[in-house]
Design goal:
single chain; alpha/beta; Rossmann fold; five-stranded parallel beta sheet
């Protein structure tokens, strides 16, 4: 079945670069100064619409996550990919972790080379220049058809799933014992 070629897709997750994109400057050179103007507002507004956020960045993971926490935006980011790999591989991993198609992702980066690398490997990913951050709020791809109560809680639901997965993977023993340890009750009405 083919879709309407004139229909606009809806982005489900924005994958952000960090240096000169989320913050001004380079983390390892100047500590990642201030947030780029409009980033916090864009993160919050898209989050309210149920659009998720992640990171694909070449940085020291501990330093980057600490800086994101200092800036008060780490809570918005699911399955961040911070390290030395290529961005397209990070985009693939984020889509896999969120269980969504790469064509439901947008990638925001200040470097044309990085955007081109992701676009080459994933033609369905919407690549956006970091200078256009505030424009995301009015682009049709970032305006879901419906915004529900579940939309407002989408990040929270993914975060809970992420925590359950970590707990299950770290549990020593059979999966049945893990499930029994949860002491869950089902009520059918």
């Amino acid at each position: 079945m083919t879709g309407d070629p004139t229909a606009t897709r809806t982005i489900k997750c924005v994958v952000w670069d960090l240096d000169d994109t989320v913050w001004e400057g380079v983390l390892l050179e100047n500590g990642g100064a201030a947030l780029r103007p409009g980033v916090r507002q864009t993160l919050a507004a898209l989050d309210e619409r149920g659009i998720l956020h992640s990171v694909a960045s070449r940085n020291d993971p501990e330093a980057a996550m600490a800086r994101l926490a200092e800036l008060g935006i780490a809570e918005y980011l699911l399955y961040p990919q911070v390290g030395r790999g290529v961005r397209s591989a990070s985009v693939t991993e984020i889509a896999r972790a969120l269980n969504i198609g790469v064509d439901a992702l947008a990638f925001v980066n200040d470097q044309p080379f990085e955007r081109d690398e992701v676009a080459h490997e994933h033609p369905g990913v919407l690549c956006v220049d970091a200078s256009e951050v505030t424009d995301l709020l009015v682009r049709t791809e970032f305006v879901p058809r419906f915004v529900t109560e579940d939309s407002h809680r989408r990040r929270e639901m993914y975060r809970s799933d992420q925590e359950r997965t970590i707990a299950e993977e770290s549990f020593a023993g059979p999966q049945e014992d893990f499930l029994a340890a949860l002491d869950m009750r089902v009520e059918i009405a």
